[in-house]
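Researcher: Let's try something more involved. This one mixes different molecule types, so please make sure each is placed in the same coordinate frame as the others.
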Amino acid sequence: MAIATPPTRVAAERMERLDEIWQSRPGVLGWLTTTDHKRIGLLYFWTTLVLFGAGGAEALLIRTQLAQPNSHVVSPNTYDELFTMHGITMIFFFIIPMTTGAFGNYLLPLMLGARDMAFPRMNALSYWIFLASAIFIYTSLAIGKAPNAGWFDYVPLASRKYNPGHNIDFYALGIIFNGIASTLTAGQFIVTIFKARAPGMSLNRMPLFCYAFLAASFGLLFALPALTADTIFLFLDRNVGTHFFDVAHGGSALLWQHLFWIFGHPEVYILIVPAFGIATSIIPAFTQRRLVAFPLVAIAELLVVFIGFGVWAHHMYTVGMPTVSMIFFAAATAMVVIPSTIQVFAWCMSFITGFARFRTPLLFIAGFVFMFVTGGLTGIMFVAIPFDQQVTDTYFVVAHFHYIIFGAAVFPIFGGMYYWFPKVTGKLYFERPGQISFWLIFVGTNLLFFPMHIVGLLGMTRRMYTYPSGLGWTAYNLAETIGGFVTLAGILLLLGNLFVSYRRGPPAGPDPWHGPTLEWTTSSPPPEYNYAVVPRVTSAYPNWDPVDRQVDRLNLGDGAFMLDRGHEQPEVTPVDGRFAEIVRMPHESPWPPVLALCLALVFTMLLINRYEVAAVMGLLCLLALVGWHSQEPEGA
Amino acid sequence: MKAPRKDRRFAFLILAVVPLAGCGGGDSANSLAPASHQARDIANLFWWMMGGAWLGLALVVALLFWSWKRRNRRGWGDDVEGDKPGEKRSWYAVVGLGIAMPIVVIATLFVIGDLFVIKTTQAPASTTTRLTVEVIGHQWWWEVRYPGTHAVTANEIHIPVNTPVRVEVETADVIHSFWVPELNRKIDTIPGRKNVVGLDADKVGVYRGLCSEFCGLQHAHMSMLVFVDTPSAFQRWLAHEEQPASRNPITSLASEGEQLFMNGPCSSCHAIRGTDAAGFVGPDLTHVASRTTLAAVTIPNDRENLREWIVNSQHVKPGNQMPNFDLSGHKLDALVAYLDGLK
Amino acid sequence: MTDYAVPEERIARPAAWWGMWILIASEATLFGVFIGTYFFLRFKTGIWPPNGIPKPALVVPLILLAVLVGTSIPMRLAANAALERRLGATRLFVSIALVVQAGYFAYAVHDFSDQVHRSDITRDAYSSIYYTLLGASHAHVLLGILFNLWLLGKLARGFTTYRVNGAQAIALYWYAVIVITIVVYGTLLSARA
Ligand code: HEA
Ligand code: HEA
Ligand code: CUA
Ligand SMILES: [Cu+2]
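Model: All components are placed in one shared frame. Result:
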């Protein structure tokens, strides 16, 4: 339902009023104070894209150094900083904020039929904190003190004794800081999903995309505290002189590893689950078919995160654990595979039994299935403990996780960028260069990551800043480097295509794909209030329910259920989605960026060990919070 | 070098050509060229898993290809509501391929890998082997001790062929990981712990080992060589290694070098058994000249490299714990002559 | 308004209540990890607390705990009064809770610094986790106090739905603080066994 032209005078009046009510301030100030989930999503998008560029630049420097044996492109310490920052950037500052921050923020309320998140200001806060944490951690690179002990940062290498500079303090504080942003996002996604659905959208009518983000949010909420505690301990050990990880004083180096991976393994599923969500949105649209085995897939999405909490020690098979514990974790790892296989075959069967149109988004999803299965199959090999002990910490593992992360998390992000491009910009992208960009990226990543399996089996360990010739590794490494640059070319073509399409693409209209979910019922780009009429929902594919859309149109004609007396949004009962109340939402607040700034000051002061000043800055944070809450939503 | 028969049988499964042969000359670290029953079990496990993985991937690719064949089928957008015909069959496919099949496959893998192969790769219990070797990881070199004897060396381990050996690993600083791909899986050195792994080589030769846990700047140059000798050659080597350094340097130049070593900074970091030098920061140099490489397999051990190392170790292995020494001419010649005599 | 009539009665919890549960879940997990760490360190150490460190005192913490649990009553009363929009009663109960909480907190801080003087946080792993747990628990009490102060400030200017929901959420947070404190003391006192 395009609501570009209101059908009646009442409708026109009311839509004008909605426009007025929801309008954002113009200019930079509007962006600074915005609470609009779409704007926040776009802010996240641009920021994470730049960070992806940074992580990619680091990766290509790594590859350039490794293209030849014994080369001196970068110094050993620079190399260590590069791969550490590459890992941190890609995981904490690219995938998580790109999927949850950008895609989740922009699309979740749209798919739920809501006008905004349940806590719009908190949403803004999460962005500003995220931005501040990114600047914080990249400052370290700028001043030559970047974290250099790997993304999992094992102690005692990361302890003050072996790493006296501020490098690791940047890591510890940066990770805690970033974790606050992710926790805020996760928390309010959960509340939004349970509270802000369109009336009628009971849980079984919720799109799979939302299930995926629900799973990811629960994962973040319960996984991040382990990392936070771990990095707090690390910070205290390094700066206060505690002994959590110090064996000589009753601490334990393995404590770090356990806590890290208790976070770290759920984290990898948090990376992938939103990508599942994107895939389950694109597949129905381009096969024009409801996804096969919907309930199984929904359960699988939740289950994978849940079981993912019980497998962490499979990253630690070589630390000398008792065999029984290892076998326990191997069994759990074996179980975690089932939800993934369910999904893979549900997608495949949808491809086959639907009416597949291999346009660029679907190509990326097909590529994603291929890459995910390849990476997943090497993941399964690690279930055999002796084999894992043989190849752990070699490039075989690097191959596993790049297949699964690049192939299975980044491919859907690219596919999603194409798929929702018309929705966000109102323009169509160009199909031909789109398909070429897919093939470039597909060939590039396979050339980049496949040889890593072989070179790992040939004994090449991770995190070597250089390697000798004569071990049979050289040719593979060169191929990988070439693959890296082919990938770069593909990504640049993709971004170029979208950029040109934005300038010159043909208009898309509200629903170029005949997509299944609610976002395709509103105009492209959506108005600030998303939906003029609160949409009626009776299935998980509301845009394919012509009767309901007709009801929306009639409602609009009557000016009914337009909630135009303020920043209003309906809230529902959490499970069966019955209409519960109309709430007033806060709108435009300067406090989120202010609070983020104060927090940044706290972390900076902690970094340079000025604890008194940090406490004062903490008081500033509290003041900002008081200011924040002095603005109550009007009339609430 | 010819690939072992079993490897060749599956070699066609791997797309690119892996140099499958282990040369046993220290110039490969190929986990698929096993030289012990443990490594062989793991390699076989891998070949089977890889075969299975290719089948699994082929299945999914076939399904994708099938849908590609059916692309642009008529009916787009006609009838998106309601279930498609064949919905039941799709469900069966998902349950069968997505639940039943993986359960069978993974259960098999689990039983073979984690109940059987894991046994053979397990570390031997103490006192069940005749030989125990102690390996201590340092940033960035390996100290090697033979408990019960006086032998101490660095970065080179000698073991007899066809003899189970218990290797006990510890660390002097951060976490390292002891790994000789052609002989067995790896094991980490954890502060405050003694971990064990078994070696049981069945082919005489030299095998390369690598530190495989990131341990700082020179993690890349922290390798070792494992010499698998015949039992008699091993006994000879051990007997020699136990001897203190010869007290009578052969030439006067070398005696001068000895003086320099003892009175200079060298002796504060290095030990040479039978002399006053008893430092423990760097490797034991008692028989340094009998080793084939220097600085954890960074450079071959010859006079040229020895000179270079003493004068410019920070260039050879940037960041390593031994400083450069501003020596030249006669003094350097003397020092090198002395060290080169420590056979 | 066609078929979307708003129900008269509240049939679903407000978002504020959900939000507070999210915060509590996150905090509780953090404490869970701290406590896991405590026992991880404990079971790898023979003597606990390690030689020379006195076992934690029993009586004072238990009294403190009792006081703290007691404050749940005025908080509960305040939350109920807020629901009924009885302004005076709400203010009164919040103030009562606040005074007791502040007393608890003052004594806790005093006791904490006292202990640190006797045996430093940098002494060994036991001290590290002991003081981290205790400190984190006290910090949460402080946060609860700040919430209450803020609520009192807000109530100075009467009720809104927002404030009523706030009062419920803050009471909920306070119960969580109490539960967390009980678990923390239980953990720390387990060293006596
Ligand atoms: C997006 C992230 C992601 C995902 C989804 C996964 C998924 C899986 N991972 Fe991976 N993993 C990582 C990211 C991820 N991993 C990272 C980043 C690391 C390294 C961290 C580091 O050390 O830096 C790692 C490391 C890692 C290890 C430790 C390796 C080591 O260091 O020694 C292990 C061990 O068990 C493992 C296992 C698995 C398994 C079993 C899955 C399963 O969930 C996979 C399930 C998928 C499938 C099975 C595909 C579907 C297949 C079919 C449909 C075909 C039919 C299948 C059968 C018949 C079985 N992973
Ligand atoms: C999301 C996760 C992710 C992604 C996408 C990638 C992508 C890539 N990684 Fe990744 N990598 C990790 C996560 C990831 N990696 C992690 C966790 C580690 C472990 C770190 C550790 O050991 O601690 C690792 C380690 C790692 C290593 C091992 C280093 C070592 O052990 O010594 C290597 C080596 O080749 C490598 C290479 C690459 C390459 C070439 C890419 C390429 O695919 C990158 C291609 C991307 C680009 C080329 C960017 C293009 C973007 C733009 C052009 C945007 C520009 C736009 C604007 C500026 C607006 N990575
Ligand atoms: Cu020692 Cu890596
Ligand atoms: Cu994992």
